[in-house]
């Protein structure tokens, strides 16, 4: 049920919208965005009254303030209010008001000089296209504007067209793709050119436009339009990184993550190239950790995509080894128990990396499956356990715990590695004692794996010997494991 507004409030609404002075509208906008609740509530009531009783006047006034507001803040607020009321208000506008608004909007897109406001207007234009379509009407002038702007030499025109394309809601994208199909070649050429633009805003906006209109290029018969664009996106990403424009590179990575989430099946033929390209970024010393976080998110999104699971398992062995090496490097962020971190933030950062590494390993194990994952993990495990650096050995132990949990049926070949680990622990190696303490702590939480390792008599013998010489710290683990071994033997004899 719609609210009923008093005669006094209706008169105030009409006075605000019909005044030649912009101050009453400016006051309304200020109160709408005020942190003070009484002012905010009263302003919303006034806005809803305007929307219900004077829709045409509201649009005219809001649009007037967008063009002629006294400050960028007022103009931005007016644009946000226009977006807020658009969906409910568009069907209530008179036909003349709708026609005028469409024309005024296209002019505003060409004339707006403030990029933040232009971005909001492009978002409104894309949503307005949906509202127009819902009423059974069309907006062919918008399509003409997009095609004209994509071919323009004006960077502002290009940017406005790209933003409109990128912001189209998913429900409207099939309609837009169908409408643009006859112009696929010039659109494709324009996108390729803009992916290589020296203007980073245009580059990132093109990423968004490609993702939004992906079905325009993937559903077309004949030429593989999508492959060219995907390659152009990766080249554009590396260009942004090489020019130290990492904030923009992160925006580009966000769009690529969205592509994986929405259309993973399109990436199957190119998955190996994509993964290798991302691994290069992770390995680069010039790229900051903040940007690498987005690369990790991309790789995790790929790993989690069920549509890509079979393709992931079919990647070349060397690619999978490099992929698994990423979480292993994250696990190296651990510090010695007796060392102090410089700051609490450093401690939290390192802990976060270790948690991310464990999550990586778990998700990669799930995606690749036991038969693919275990041989690769075992290969890395031996390499890490043979290292002199205790951090690498600790990472190997952590990986083993994950693999033991996720790939229990394929763990048989790891038994000799456990034996090797135990035999090489000397009584004067405190770090290795703590490594072994960590893995025994992990293994004793699940009897299945202890029972599995109890099948290996060499391991059984070495643990008995080890229990005679190690620090008191480890006695409880060895004793516990021996008890499980005894139980296992009793079960086997029965």
From TrEMBL:
According to the lineage, what is the superkingdom?
A: Eukaryota
Where does this protein reside within or beyond the cell? Answer: Cytoplasm; Nucleus
Q: Which residues form the IPO4/5-like TPR repeats domain?
A: 121-275
Pfam families to which the protein is assigned, alphabetical: TPR_IPO5 (PF25780)
Q: Where are the transmembrane segments?
A: none
One GO term describing the cellular component: cytoplasm
> Keywords of this protein's UniProt record, alphabetized?
Cytoplasm, Nucleus, Protein transport, Repeat, Transport
Its main localization is cytoplasm
List GO BP terms, alphabetically. protein import into nucleus
Protein name from the UniProt record: Ran-binding protein 6-like
Question: Which organism's genome codes for this protein?
Answer: Pyrus ussuriensis x Pyrus communis
Top-level taxonomy: Eukaryota, Viridiplantae, Streptophyta, Embryophyta, Tracheophyta
């Amino acid at each position: 049920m719609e609210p009923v507004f008093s005669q006094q409030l209706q008169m105030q609404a009409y006075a605000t919208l019909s005044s030649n002075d912009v101050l009453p509208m400016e006051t309304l906008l200020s109160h709408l965005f005020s942190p003070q609740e009484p002012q905010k509530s009263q302003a919303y009531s006034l806005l809803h009254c305007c929307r219900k009783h004077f829709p045409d006047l509201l649009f005219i006034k809001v649009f007037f303030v967008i063009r002629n507001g006294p400050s960028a803040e007022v103009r931005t607020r007016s644009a946000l209010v226009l977006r807020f009321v658009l969906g409910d208000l568009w069907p209530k506008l008179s036909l003349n008001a709708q026609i005028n608004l469409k024309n005024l909007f296209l002019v505003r897109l060409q004339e707006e000089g403030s990029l933040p406001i232009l971005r909001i207007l492009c978002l409104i234009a894309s949503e307005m296209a949906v509202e127009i379509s819902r009423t059974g009407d069309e907006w062919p002038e918008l399509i003409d504007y997009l095609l004209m702007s994509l071919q323009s030499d004006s960077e502002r025109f290009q940017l406005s067209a790209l933003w409109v394309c990128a912001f189209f809601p998913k429900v409207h994208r099939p309609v837009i793709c169908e409408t643009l199909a006859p112009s696929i070649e010039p659109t494709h050429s324009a996108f390729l050119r803009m992916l290589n633009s020296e203007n980073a805003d245009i580059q990132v906006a093109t990423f968004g436009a490609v993702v939004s209109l992906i079905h325009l290029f993937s559903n077309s018969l004949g030429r593989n339009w999508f492959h060219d664009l995907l390659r152009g996106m990766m080249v554009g990403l590396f260009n942004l990184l090489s020019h130290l424009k990492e904030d923009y590179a992160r925006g580009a990575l966000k769009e690529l993550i969205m592509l994986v989430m929405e259309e993973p099946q399109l990436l199957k033929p190119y998955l190996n190239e994509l993964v290798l390209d991302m691994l290069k970024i992770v390995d680069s010393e010039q790229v900051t950790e903040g940007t690498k976080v987005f690369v990790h998110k991309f790789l995790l999104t790929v790993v989690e995509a069920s549509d890509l699971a079979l393709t992931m398992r079919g990647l070349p062995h060397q690619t999978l080894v490099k992929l698994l090496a990423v979480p292993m490097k994250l696990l190296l962020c651990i510090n010695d128990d007796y060392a102090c971190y410089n700051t609490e933030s450093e401690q939290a950062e390192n802990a976060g990396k270790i948690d991310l590494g464990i999550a990586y390993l778990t998700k990669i194990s799930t995606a690749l499956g036991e038969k693919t994952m275990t041989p690769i993990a075992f290969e890395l495990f031996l390499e890490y356990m043979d290292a002199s650096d205790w951090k690498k050995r600790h990472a190997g132990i952590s990986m083993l715990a994950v693999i033991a949990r996720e790939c229990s049926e394929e763990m048989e070949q790891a038994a000799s590695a456990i034996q090797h680990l135990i035999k090489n622990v000397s009584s004067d190696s405190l770090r290795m004692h703590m490594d072994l303490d960590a893995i025994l702590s992990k293994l004793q939480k699940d009897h299945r794996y202890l029972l599995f390792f109890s099948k290996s008599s060499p391991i059984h013998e070495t643990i008995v010997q080890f229990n005679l010489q190690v620090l008191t710290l480890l006695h409880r683990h060895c004793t516990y494991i021996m008890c499980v071994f005894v139980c296992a033997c009793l079960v086997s004899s029965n």
